[in-house]
Amino acid sequence: MSQAFLMNAVNATYFLAAFLFIMGLKRMSSPVTAQGGIVTAGWGMLIATVATFAHPEILKAANLPLVYGLMVAGIAVGGGIAWVSGKRVAMTDMPQMIAIYNGMGGGAAAAIAAIELLKVAAILPGTPAGTSPHDHGAFVNALAVAGALIGAVSFSGSAIAYAKLQGIMDKVYSLPGHHFISFGLLAASVILGIYIVMEPAGSTGLVIAFFVCALLFGVLMTLPIGGADMPVIISLYNAFTGLAVGFEGFVLNNSAMIVAGIVVGSAGTLLTQLMAKAMNRPIAKLLTPPTGTGGPAQKVEGTQKPIEAGDVAALMAYAQKVVIIPGYGMAVAQAQHKVWELTKVLKDRGVEVKFAIHPVAGRMPGHMNVLLAEAGVPYDIIFDIEEINEEFATTDVAFVIGANDVVNPAARTDQSSPIYGMPILNADYAKHVIVNKRGKGAGFSGIENLLFYQDNTRMYYGGGQEAVAKLVQELKALGD
Amino acid sequence: MIDFNPLYVFLLAAFTGYEVIARVPVILHTPLMSGSNFVHGIVLVGAMVALGKATTGLELAIGFFAVALAAMNAVGGYVVTERMLGMFKKSKPAEGAK
Fold this sequence. Notes:
By secondary structure, chain A is α/β, with parallel strands linked by helices. Chain A has 18 helices and 6 strands.
């Protein structure tokens, strides 16, 4: 077969893959078709990967058997590890898993750039421009450098994000003058990058220094970011990797990479904005030095009034509408299966049950939906903040389980509160509010919750799973 | 002369990405992020080509590294997205196919 024919055939599969990727993403943006969407995109990936074994650039390799061997080994090792870990990971740990897979993609893009740049750097100084087969010109080199920088930051940054969410690393680290050091590293990588583009020949040492600076910058950029902001940064790195892949696609003249990378780069940017907005955490705020928040602790009036399981069960049993507000605490306590059981018991009694999800209810927007879906809760009784907030006024019982800040009315009224301005679920408008919590005291964020002290609020203390199980028992004992 | 065609591809792809997910509901943010994470796993084909072009020992090592990382991105992204989306169910049977 002629080389031109092969190249055309490979490019045709890339075209098909690009089409399938876009179709797949489109289908993934609606719950009805989402499941088929990932399969669609998966076919695109499979076809493109298989076809690439016949890519003329690879067939040209002098040591073809070795190259094929390394390729198959790399796919087997990387794919195998990812397959096993992906099948095993608990749904609660999903955000960090996405982060680490994403970082790998960024690392791969940076590694591609490294090979290209090392080849360019190996050209002897003084060689006339355009005479070496590795010299693609300044424009392509600039894209390679840009993709390398973005990809390397995504790689090391995602690794730190993973370590933090996995609990391997303490929450927040920062060095003295942290932001100056970060900025210095970024500036150094940009200057080195520009130098490599201007004077590529003989710059091997600079290429290595460039990668070191870029990788360190990714680490330092991520270290000071706290757990609550992690989803936004993971999403941002996802967009970064997309862009890096797109840029390296230009370098390798590979249309599938260009289209897929840029589509993900722009979709990821939009998704990052949507998440940041949903969580009330502006992206710009993440990347600038933190301003000292806090101020004096608020004074709260009133007391927390406890309630027993039997009374909670009675309230719910004779309610018309119950809205359940789950938070990450519920998932940590593994109570979601029990909550679904409670829902079914209530539904059998004719009580209308709905779930209200705040965007930060899980570790990232949509995460709580995944956790509830895992427990078997159908997605059409789950509502997000805009859909359900009007309904609290006509709700008999709002049941808050493992959630805290997202139902704190201080966000509406108290300007000194760190969460002031964040959209909250209006649980306090319900006739009765039941809060399930392990014990007294401020939660994860350390902010006092005004809701807990309201006249219509009762505190139902106890570990999530056990507490809900008790409710189910009491409800069943109530009979008809 | 600069070839402008890639720039047009860039422009159109950027708008496509934006439009395709512009109306995604919050419940799908996490799976969709994971799904788009899978799609940039296409870096695997680039890693394979880069490995094919590698000649020195260092380049071969970096190429192998790139292929392994990219394969993790693609396979891992697929597995977790598929697992998450497989859980989304409706409570009643759909009322007529749409």
